[in-house]
Amino acid sequence: MNTETRTQDAQALWQKDKDHFIHPFTDFSTFHEEGCDLITDSDGIYVQDAKGNRFIDGIAGLWCVNVGHGRAEIGQAMAEQATRMAYFSTFNNLSNAPAAELSARLAELAPAHLNHVFYSCGGSTANDATIRLVHYYFNRLGQPAKKRIISRNNAYHGTTYLASTLTGIASNNWDFDTLDHLVTHLSEANCYRRPEGMTEADYCDHLVREFEDTVAEIGADNIAAFIAEPIMGAGGVLVAPRDYHKRMQAVCRANDILYIADEVVTGFGRLGHFFASEAVYETQPDIINCAKGLSSGYAPLGATLISDALYDVLSTPQGPGGVLSTGFTYSGHPVSCAAALKNIEIIEREGICENVRAVGPYLEERLASLSHHATVGDVRGGHFMMCLENVADKQTKALFPVEARVGDRVAFEAQQLGLIIRPVGHLNIVSPPLIWTRDTVDRVVEILDAALTKTTATLRADGYL
């Protein structure tokens, strides 16, 4: 394709997209004029736009393309399944081979007591379905008052109606309705912005005590579950103090509150293990929710992994003719499950979790070197889940005004140099495919170094520094 034809095609696609596609998280202050960058091709750690520009993918699509782009064997597995049987219902005692095989594999990979899988279509629906099942569980136990869910400020659990209420990022719900009578939010675990003079251990005590006080105020008999990401994702890649998750689970156990781990982002290798809850944080959740890396984004799929104890209750009929009357048309979709099975095979065969454990600390170390920039207040995260927090004053940790669009500036400058990272307000998130090497890390840090230098210059020129 010659340059003129490519340009014409790119312009036509850009116009169609702008005229007809309502994008998730659209910034309409710029979209009406600028539209979107169209990504049309991908391979390994790279993506390419409609104009032919090639970029290192620094966000794994959206936390999810864990094994990298363009894996022909996943596409082949999906094609073979679609040709053999693309879809059939899993309602009313019907099933399919990929869903059955995947359920068994997930039970093998998850903590030992999580042996049962409920399928949905993504992370939001996994969290939504989980809360419905949790309420049903307590209803079946004769405890219908146990409805309240405890979440956290700046948590991200999705954008379906109930999941958006679980989400604690205030700007996500501006002018949207939420189900606030069902959810109470605790403070997020933000070590960078913990109270001045408080040690990390003291801060952990403070957060656990807040949970205990909240349980006492609401009443354990009214609380069904606590939900938490092992590392917060879109809310700022916030890493909790040491032993936080173990201690929060202990509060749950003492008060008959279920502990739900939202591993939509952390699952399937991002922290170096298939699941982080037990392997990294020494917790044994009653439920683990996953999506994204489950299929590496090759097909939509979410899963709720449920403990034996919960399943024993959920699988008991209410009475003659009673059924577990919840689910989705695409629960256990055979093509999505085939993609997930091949994805898991690749992760195991190529030692991708081992790669994350080897290269992840190097990524942390090299990104930390960017702290010399005037605007970089904090570099945090774990392994292949990292964040730079941009501040106007490193001493006071004061933020730039929203109109400075500091995260967007850094992301723009990086993209000009061939790297896509994710801006979230004043933050920049790096969550790459799990196949990055040390050489890739060096190149990425080189680009970010230059992007931050250019951003500092433009902020000064515009009077923000």
TrEMBL record:
Keyword Ribonucleoprotein included in the entry's annotation: no
Gene3D superfamilies: Aspartate Aminotransferase, domain 1, Type I PLP-dependent aspartate aminotransferase-like (Major domain)
UniProt-listed CDD domains: OAT_like
GO molecular-function terms, A-Z: pyridoxal phosphate binding; transaminase activity
Top-level lineage group: Bacteria
CC cofactor: pyridoxal 5'-phosphate
InterPro entries linked: Aminotrans_3 (IPR005814), Aminotrans_3_PPA_site (IPR049704), PyrdxlP-dep_Trfase (IPR015424), PyrdxlP-dep_Trfase_major (IPR015421), PyrdxlP-dep_Trfase_small (IPR015422)
Keywords noted in UniProt: Aminotransferase, Pyridoxal phosphate, Transferase
NCBIfam families on file: PRK07036.1
Family per similarity comment: Belongs to the class-III pyridoxal-phosphate-dependent aminotransferase family.
UniProt-recorded name of the protein: Adenosylmethionine-8-amino-7-oxononanoate aminotransferase
Source species of the chain: Chromohalobacter marismortui
